Amino acid sequence: MSTWGGPVDVTLTGGRVVTPGGVLENGWVSVRDGRIAAVGEGAAPDGPTTNVGGGTIVPGFVDIHCHGGGGAAFTSADPAKVRKAAAAHRKHGTTTMLASLVTRPVPELADQVAALAELVQEGVVAGVHLEGPFLSAARCGAHDPAILCPPEQTSVTKLLDAGKGTVRMITIAPELEGAVNAVRQLVDNNVIAAIGHTDATEAQVRPAVDAGASVATHLFNGMRPLHHREPGPIGALLDDERVTVELICDLVHLHPTAVRLAARHAGPQRTVLITDAIAAASVGDGVYDIGGLEVRVVDGVPTLAGGASLAGSTLTMDMAFRNAVNSCGLTLVEAAYAASTRGAELLGLDTGKLEAGLAADIVVLDAELKPQDVMVRGEWVKD
């Protein structure tokens, strides 16, 4: 990782550049005033250059579902810990992320959202994702079932008001009482309604999508399984052109074949890689807390203490990208779209692609597709 400091005006040369339209084998990316000025192939324009030594240049990763990292969780009201978690993922190429929160009582969640809202304004994270408390007890995973509740209008309003416009996505089980009305409420407030942690039938999922739900929270995980006589949420969400599907590409939550099947069916416009990472990401094995529940991480796999239920991951987005390419059969273009572009599109942000006019959020990967250098808004990330 480079230790350069301050914004730079430079043209990155000497590598392959991954764009939505294809891979430029002898490509270059020019950065000016924190934005991408131009992208091309062949001879670079005049001016300062940096040779990336044959590396692969991709857009900065966008993670729309992340609970923490570097030993810190986004549930903390301590700004220093939130910054620590964001910084841990930034070193792995994640230049934009949502701070995901787990199930807690609504008043406590509102306090957490309010604390994060200030950090959203500072640009530490791009917004807040609430994964709970409006989930199914039958598919709650690492969420305390005693705290789960239906998405009543007053509860949803309290959480949105606490965020002052920074809540960007809320996950809801569509079979809960009031779920379809809650989806409409979110859409009316420009918040993404996601479907997840659900035991719904296909027939229960359809009305929520018709009402505006547009994301499947970690498809396959925390859901009624796909069955040939009852497709359930997996079949309904994967097959609906209006829905983008999240995939945890750590090769633990999903087999490579499952990732490949889902990504191929949904296509680049509807596939987004996520980490669902907890505080253990970039730290290692040990005992952690998620929403008041004890989680043990062994060999990099978090599970609830005393059980086998997976409790998030220790994944980073660079690893998700590598896994997608090396193990799941996605091309570099497809993986970049899923790891960067689609998430930025969902959030309506000016990043996620190597394209003139967008923010200069860039990752230079080495021959093993590991981050060599990371740039955020035209500034190199320091060690």
TrEMBL record:
Keywords: Carbohydrate metabolism, Hydrolase, Metal-binding. Pfam families: Amidohydro_1 (PF01979). Coiled coil: none annotated. The keyword Glycosyltransferase does not apply. Gene3D superfamilies: Metal-dependent hydrolases, Urease, subunit C, domain 1. The keyword Metal-binding applies. Residues 56-381 form the Amidohydrolase-related domain. PANTHER family: N-ACETYLGLUCOSAMINE-6-PHOSPHATE DEACETYLASE. Belongs to the metallo-dependent hydrolases superfamily. NagA family. This is N-acetylglucosamine-6-phosphate deacetylase. The gene is nagA.
